[in-house]
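Example (one chain per record):
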Amino acid sequence: MMVAIDWYAWHRLYNDPTSKRAQRLAQMQEVVLQALQGLPDGPIDLLSLCAGQGREIVGALQRRPRPGDVNVRMIELDPRNAEIADRLVREAGAGRVETVVDDAGLRRLYAGAIPVDLLLLCGVFGNLVLSDIERCAAFAASAVRPDGLVVWTRHRGAPDCVPAIRSWFTANGFVEEYVNPETDPVAVVLNRYAGPPRPLAPQERIFTFVTGVVPPETPPKLASTP
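Predicted structure:
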């Protein structure tokens, strides 16, 4: 049975700097910044799936010279989180910003939107069955350009699936640029795609969350994309 989670309320612990969630966020922001710094100068296309409130992106942009070089596309199902992400990423100085309120697991959302330079899969894999995570590793090879980067996370709780996920990315042509210490409860991994351009697989759905979303009473409106 699917468990519904209020992902808007879930983000509140980020506001407590002493919480484990806030500490994990700081680590993810550091790795996203590392990824942005590792890309060539010039425009950067960033795509974030299940973007939440976009805080991984915001923290990296706030510390990066020329944040306006980064064009951001975020896909987030909860409109409350999407509204916050849209505002915060714009305030952080990103270039072009597009925020899509929809199910990031649907293939149709990526027609004409990929490949990109940096793909974020943060907070996604803990909500998927293993077969969908493996499918995401294959999708990532289509979603980024050659030498493009992927940042992904997954908790290391039993059973620890992180070694298997790392092997799936390797099997799909990725090399690891960074993996945080195994003593950390959540794995934060930076991969670079070393393979050739790859077409997007034809299946209609890439993944399905095993947790549902508690809908808001009144969906907010997003700012128009410049």
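Caption: Strands lie at 3-5, 44-49, 70-75, 97-100, 116-121, 144-155, 174-179, 186-193, 211-213.
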